[in-house]
Amino acid sequence: MLASSVQRSKPTPYPSKARSALIRRAVVVALVLVALTLVTISFRSPTSGALHGLQGAGSTALRPFQVAATRVAQPFRDAYDYLSSLSSAKSEAARLKKQNAELRKDILSAEARAAKYPQLVRLMHFEQEPSFPQGYRAINVAVISSPGGPFTHTLEIARGSGAGIRRNDPVVSGDGLVGIVSNVFPDSAVVTLISDPSGYVSARDLRTQVTGGVQASPAGGGTLVLNGVQKQKVVHVGDWLVTNGTHSKQYPDLYPYGIPIGRVSSVGATDTAVFLQVQVQPAANLGSLDSVGVLVPKKPRR
After folding, report:
1. Residue 122 and residue 178: Cα distance in Å, rounded?
2. β-sheet bridge partners, residue 241
3. pTM of structure
4. At what angle do helices 50-128 and 17-44 cross, to 10 degrees?
C-alpha cells in the first residue's frame, strides 16, 4: 500500500486577467441593457399594471431609507445653506458699504459745488444789473487761496495775465467790492482786500450823497470806517456806501462808480473831534469767498 501511488486532484486553475475583464464588461453591458429595457417599459406602459405595481412596492419598501437619508443629510444641507447665505451676505454687505462710500463722496462733492453756486449766481446777476460799471467786462474766476488769518488781507485767484487780468483791476463778488489786483502771474493773480490797512476807497452815501474815504478800521475785525466826513454832514445807520468813481481825468480813480462797498453800522461823534466816526460793515463776505469777478476795462489803459 505504501508503494502504491496516491492520485491527487488537479488544482483549480486561476482565471486569467483577460477572462476577468471580459466578465466585468459582460456584466456592465447586461446591467445597461436591463436599465434601458426598464426605462423603455416604464415610459411605454400604461399607468396601471404589474410593472407599476412592482414599482410602487419598491418605492414603498425604500421609503424608510429615503426618509432616513433625508433626515441624516438635512443638517449638512442646512449648514451648507447657512454658510452659503453668510458668505453671500458678507459679499453684499461689502458691496453696499463700498456703494455707500461712493454715494457719500458724490453727495459731499455735490454739496461743495452747491455751496459755490449762490456766489456764481449773484455774480451773474451783478453783471446784468444797471449799476454794473460801464466800460468794463467781468472775468469770473475761482478763489484758490483765501486769507489765512486775521492779519492776512490778500487772496489768490486762478487766472492771471493769460486771461487779460492786469494790476489795479477792481475785484468784486456778487455782493459788493472785494479789493484790487495787486500782483499778476501768467495763470494766477493776487488780490488785496479792502480790509487791508493800506487800502483806500473813495466812497459815497447813496442816501445823503456824503462822500469820504473808506479804510480798514483801526480796531480790526474786518470792519471798515468812513473817514473825512465833517460833523455837520448827515449819515444814517443802514445807509449804503458805493464807490465814488472818477471825477477828474487828471486823477482817475481805480474803482468805477457804483460798486457797493458796505452799509453803515454805527455813527458817532465827540465834542473834540472834527469828523464823524462812521463804522461800515463790508457788503462782501471777505473771509469766505469761493469765486470773484475781476473788472477789466474794455478799452486798454494808457
Report:
1. 14
2. 205, 262
3. 0.61
4. 80
